């Protein structure tokens, strides 16, 4: 197994080529990405955190200054009851629970882009890899979907497209996907999760 985070568009194609070269016929590449469209909201928070940490060199100082800047903006937003004000307050609370190491990785990396599942699958396909499925259990159990949403999902013509619709519905910000060498006949039947 090969585990790779994708943080940078310019390196993504190289990462998939290395995966193709290194994977055995039975191998699985575990690829983690920030997911679109959900990460777009996080990107706004990242911009505030990066502005706060600008100029600091030491990791502890960077995270301290970043947290202080986000707290300052959230506490003084013009309309705290607006969607933006509520969102910032939620992120401040959420990030109080996050370690400095996670904050550095998730928000303060120099390169930290987000990708749609379709883009990741397309890039992997160009490198000779095939999407096996999601490495995580579904975030939205089928029993929580309304009948109208279930019908809408069933009408979407493909697994990747259905996953992208679910990503939008659940504001998914992070994805862990599995890839194998193309042409190995290892795809599970439509609608089934790959065995882990």
Question: How would you describe what is shown here?
Answer:
Helices cover 51% and strands 14% of the residues. It contains eight helices and five strands. The protein has helices at 9-22, 39-53, 59-76, 83-96, 100-107, 117-126, 147-155, 159-169; strands at residues 2-6, 29-35, 114-115, 129-134, 174-181. Strands 1, 2, 3, 4 and 5 form a five-stranded mixed sheet that branches. The longest helix is centred in the middle third of the chain and has 18 residues, at 59-76. The relative contact order is 0.19.
Strand content: 5-15%
Mean pLDDT: 86
* Helix-and-strand structural type: alpha/beta
User: In sequence order, what are the helices and strands, one letter per element?
Assistant: EHEHHHHEHEHHE
H/I helix tally: 8
Total strands: 5
Q: Helical amount among residues, as a percent range?
A: 40-55%
The rough form would be described as flat
Using only C-alpha atoms, the radius of gyration works out to 19 Å
Parts with pLDDT < 50 across at least 5 consecutive residues: none
The major beta sheet can be summarized as: 5 strands, mixed
Distance between the termini: 11 Å
């Amino acid at each position: 197994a090969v585990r790779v985070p994708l943080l940078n568009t310019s390196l993504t194609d190289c990462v998939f080529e290395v995966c193709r070269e290194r994977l055995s016929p039975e191998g699985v590449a575990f690829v983690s990405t920030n997911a679109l469209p959900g990460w777009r909201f996080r990107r706004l928070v990242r911009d505030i955190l990066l502005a706060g940490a600008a100029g600091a060199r030491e990791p502890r100082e960077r995270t301290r200054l970043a947290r202080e800047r986000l707290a300052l903006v959230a506490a003084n937003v013009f309309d705290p009851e607006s969607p933006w004000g509520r969102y910032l307050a939620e992120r401040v609370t959420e990030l109080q629970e996050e370690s400095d190491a996670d904050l550095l990785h998730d928000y303060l990396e120099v390169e930290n882009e987000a990708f749609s599942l379709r883009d990741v699958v397309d890039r992997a396909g160009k490198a000779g890899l095939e999407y096996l499925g999601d490495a995580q259990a579904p975030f939205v159990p089928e029993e929580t979907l309304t009948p109208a949403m279930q019908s809408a999902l069933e009408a979407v013509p493909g697994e990747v497209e259905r996953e992208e619709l679910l990503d939008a519905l659940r504001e998914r910000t992070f994805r862990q996907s599995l890839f194998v060498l193309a042409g190995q006949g290892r795809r599970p039947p439509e609608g089934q999760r790959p065995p882990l």
